[in-house]
Amino acid sequence: MKWLIRSMSFIFHPIIMPVLAVHFYFKKSPRFIPEEVVFAKLVSLSILSIALPILVYLLLKTLGKTESIYLKTTKERIFPLLINCFIVGLLILRVFPIDQIPELYYFFLGILISNMACLILVLAKFKASIHMIATGGVFMFFIVFAIHFSVNINGSLALMAIITGAVATSRLQLKAHTVKELLIGLLVGIIPQLVLLKYWL
What we know:
It contains eight helices and no strands. The chain has helices spanning 2-11, 17-28, 35-62, 74-95, 102-123, 130-149, 154-173, 179-200. α2 packs parallel to α6 (130-149), α5 runs antiparallel to α8 (179-200) and α6 (130-149) runs parallel beside α8.
């Protein structure tokens, strides 16, 4: 059981969560979007939000800017967060512009704000949980999605609640964060999505 709980940190890694959210959007949205567009968006997102961060991490490790994938210190987090802000900005401008899919535009704008807030906290020497930022942001997006389209996704919401709890428990089991760091991370992920809610509801 301990192995399963700890594995949640890897299964629901922050670089995976945006892809999960976008895949969910395309599957559940009542809006008609051509299959070729969906495929192109998912491929572009996967390259920019999964493949590119992995390559950047390997480069930073080679340059000695980070010691491990866990980014245990606030200093190690500065460059990855800066680069991630750039990647999310690129996603907003090129992959999910506001005139194409506004719901996803605001979702990624919320992610960008969360990343910037996390970076500010890192510069202030506070290590908020990036796992909880990502999970909290996706969970809130699911809730807003259900309200926006007036659809019943109670099963998905229940599953996301379980995932959020499992990820938090995993981070505690691994001794990667304190309860305070997890709670702050969760708030940093949720609040931007709530603030932007009025623009696309």
